[in-house]
């Protein structure tokens, strides 16, 4: 397990939701304080976000968006489609490994069969985020 995955696991143990644990782990690379990212990611802990995916993947998606997005609230984004494509690629890798990307399915809420624990989801999302950043030369 990478140092970043260990840090994310520690944040989760301290009470961060899955999205916060992943997103806060990559704050230094983007010059954002962990407290600011904590607030940004707070609403993603219930499996909300892109494709109703688990919170850990929402954290990954936030970092990919933060890295790839060009634009702002005034002019919109010229890169939204490309950002979504990059996120989908990583989500598909996660699904191949774990059988789903939806929190309630991963936790076995309806089936009683846990596909992937929260700590493992977090570690996998951190690994995919690191993979993405390495592909971008970061």
TrEMBL record:
Pfam families: C_GCAxxG_C_C. InterPro entries: CGCAxxGCC_motif (IPR010181). It comes from the Bacteria. NCBIfam families: C_GCAxxG_C_C. This is C-GCAxxG-C-C family protein. It comes from Dorea amylophila.
């Amino acid at each position: 397990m990478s140092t970043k995955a260990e840090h994310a696991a520690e944040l989760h143990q301290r009470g961060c939701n899955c999205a916060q644990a992943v997103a806060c782990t990559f704050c230094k690379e983007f010059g954002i304080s962990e407290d600011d990212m904590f607030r940004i990611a707070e609403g993603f802990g219930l499996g909300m976000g892109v494709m109703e995916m688990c919170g850990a993947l929402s954290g990954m998606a936030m970092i990919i968006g933060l890295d790839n997005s060009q634009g702002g609230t005034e002019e919109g984004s010229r890169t939204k489609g490309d950002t979504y494509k990059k996120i989908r690629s990583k989500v598909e890798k996660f699904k191949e490994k774990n059988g789903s990307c939806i929190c309630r399915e991963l936790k076995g809420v309806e089936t009683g069969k846990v596909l992937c624990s929260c700590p493992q989801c977090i570690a996998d999302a951190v690994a995919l985020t690191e993979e993405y950043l390495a592909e971008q030369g970061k």
